[in-house]
Amino acid sequence: MKVSIFDVAKKAGLSVVTVSRVLNGAESVREKNRQKVLDVIKELHYRPNAAAQSLASGKTGIIGLIMTTLQDSFFDAVVKEVNDILEQHGYFLAVSVSQGIQSEESHYLIQEDRVDGLILLSPIEEDNYIVEMKRRKIPYVLIDNQKSDNDTYSITIDNYQGGYTAARHLLDLGHTSIAHLSGNEMFRATSDRRNGFLQALQEVKLEPFEILLGDYDIEFGYQSAKRWVSEGTLPSAVFAGDDFIAIGVINALMEAGIRVPEQVSVIGYDDQDIASKLRPYLTTIRQPGDRIGVAATDMLLKRIAGTMKRSSNLQLAPELIVRDSTARKL
């Protein structure tokens, strides 16, 4: 038998009105009661009638999420959390992969009456999206956006602190010859991580072994480390702009018979799934994908409900995850 809103109310020991308010994102519900309703919804596998909700509210019951790639476990964690929360609120999630739109274009999810709101995950050409969403009055939230001018409704990671933490970890292990392989300059995270790294080195009056710019991929890390090996000049530690770059570095070093971390320590960024599956297990800076997804969804639902009266930017802290690829300098 299909679970109804009355079943949820009875199980939670609350009124149908309270359950309805939780489903509609109303802020007037006490946090304790809101959580109780969400727990019961999950336990009973309750699914609101999307067609009825749409007819009653004049909304589509669909939230759009635009991302740049599917090949990223950090993005996967964000999307999973967004989907789980939206499901509890009776929304369907429509995911699109896009590299951006030109100023005269319109993404199909932004077209008239397609979605009730949009989440942009690490967008490229975000200005064009924002102009179009504002024109059509679509509530939106940005995650990991590239321009600080667009932080009005956004969830960001303190990548400056992440870069600083990565460098401090290597410095605390006694490393003084540290290279940084930086990612693509189109991303704000690239410069933030690099600047945090440089700040940590400047505090102890050290210059980096080398700073290189490239793409966030394994090949960039592999070719960079391969060149160091061929030139016979190795740093004692490497801060890679992401985990894929770090894996490329480790592959090249191990191919040349150079031990990680005994001879060269390597730290990555993101804590991709692969970071804890390849040997040596990768020390990295974790971005909290689950917390990002929760925060972005909560912000968007409040915007849709009209309960967020002022703009808001939430910045979350990254976390150092120490594994086997870094060690004290001998």
From TrEMBL:
Keywords: DNA-binding, Transcription, Transcription regulation. Coiled coil: none annotated. GO terms for molecular function: DNA-binding transcription factor activity; transcription cis-regulatory region binding. InterPro entries: HTH_LacI (IPR000843), LacI/GalR-like_sensor (IPR046335), Lambda_DNA-bd_dom_sf (IPR010982), Peripla_BP_I (IPR028082). It comes from the Bacteria. Pfam families: LacI, Peripla_BP_3. The keyword Membrane does not apply. CDD domains: HTH_LacI, PBP1_LacI_sugar_binding-like. This is LacI family transcriptional regulator. It comes from Paenibacillus baekrokdamisoli.
